[in-house]
Amino acid sequence: MLSIDNRPSFSHTHRFSFGHAAALPTLALNRLLAYAASSIIGLFLPIFLFDFFHRSFQAVLLFYLVDQLLKLPFYVPGAKIFSKIGLKKSMMIGVLGLSVFYFMFFLLGQNTPVSPFILMGIGLVALMFTSTLYWSPFHIDFAEFSSKEKRGRQISALFVLQHIIGVIGPIVSGALIVLYGYSATFALGFFLVLCSLLPLYFLPAKSVQYEFGYWQSFRELFSKRFRPMSISMMAFGAENTIGILVWPIFLYMLFEGDYLNIGFFSAFIIITTLLFQIFIGKETDKVSAKRMLHIGTGLYALGWVWKGLVQTVTGVFAASTFHSFGSIFLQTPMDALTYEQAADAGHYIDEYTVLREMSLNIGRIFIIIFLLVLNIYLPITVSFFVAAAISLVINRLADTVRT
């Protein structure tokens, strides 16, 4: 059951009143500041670990496997916690967890006398709080604060702003690494994450009541009601992990360790797709999101295949540009459908979002284990073809949508 305090209350405030609408840009500002941090660190974190572990891709995979395995048991306890303390406080704790993660890696880059594995362990525990206490409340709030009629455009607007930030982030990060080392990027990320706390203070204090039990939550993942969403999100989590882990390391090897060129390359890809994102957002509100999702998954899968076939910088740039177009066709309608289904879940909106996060996590665990085995026998580029096949499964999200 959803409830909000008197700043204002949903029970007395129309869904599209000014008080209600003001919460969405506030929530978006929090996300954009945190995204600024991740745009600076996200691309280079797998590369940092790749270097730290003496270019062992297996070790990088094991790090992320520990990260995902640590999170899985705590999604339901996390839901019980944010049911008691409220969504706003829960998100604040999650943001603090991310800041601790970045600070631990800042210390790691400083060569402190503390064991690097202790620093990594503390960082991963802190990141577990972020995953279990931030993301579900964020999605609940976004589903509630966004307009059903304009959700595609609202999501697209958020993505456009993220793309603008994403143009600057990799370049800044590459320059900082070249000039000052990795510690400078982690320090900047730490600062930006702390800044993202401020908008959360102005959000209306809303609470939910998570009603599924611990083992019931795992059973519900494959119930008739939630199965299409769960399978789709598992596929998305698996595919997205390849993009987050494998692609940056592939670029690192392609550019022979030139951090600045990696940053510029990533920025150029974002520039080529920025305006296209606005168009897709508008079309999502006009055309069936289900139909657009089917088109997007096909284009996105072809982009992964193309990435797996090229080995030159020019070829990778062309493939990446096409893949980014496919990503927009996929991501915008997928998120619109997800938030629509979450909002339509009504009383079970919190259960829906928690199961979504659990599904993403399970997909990541399975693909990392698969990559650990695959990498023993085949080069990492083979994973791009695996991502192409997996991305087609995301269509399952549309199975619960009436045509």
Give a summary of the structure in a few sentences.
The chain has 403 residues and is mostly helical. 78% of the residues lie in helices and 1% in strands.
Please give a structural write-up:
The protein is mainly α. It is 78% helix and 1% strand. The protein has 18 helices and two strands. The protein has a two-stranded antiparallel sheet.
List keywords for this structure.
403 residues, Growth Hormone, Chain: A, MFS, transport, transmembrane, MFS_Transporters
Shape from CA axes? globular
Secondary structure: helix percent: over 70%
Number of domains: 1
- Could you name the ranges where pLDDT drops below 50 across 5 or more consecutive residues? 1-21
The counted number of beta strands is 2
Share of residues in strands: under 5%
End-to-end C-alpha gap: 29 Å
| Largest sheet entry | 2 strands, antiparallel
List the helices and strands and how they pair.
Blueprint: E1 3-4, H1 18-21, H2 23-41, H3 45-52, H4 57-71, H5 75-85, H6 87-109, H7 116-133, H8 135-145, H9 151-180, H10 182-195, H11 197-201, E2 206-207, H12 214-220, H13 227-254, H14 259-286, H15 289-309, H16 313-344, H17 349-377, H18 382-391
Helix pairs in contact: 2-9, 2-10, 4-7, 4-17, 5-6, 5-7, 6-7, 6-8, 6-10, 8-16, 8-17, 9-10, 9-14, 9-16, 13-17, 13-18, 14-16, 15-16, 15-18, 16-17
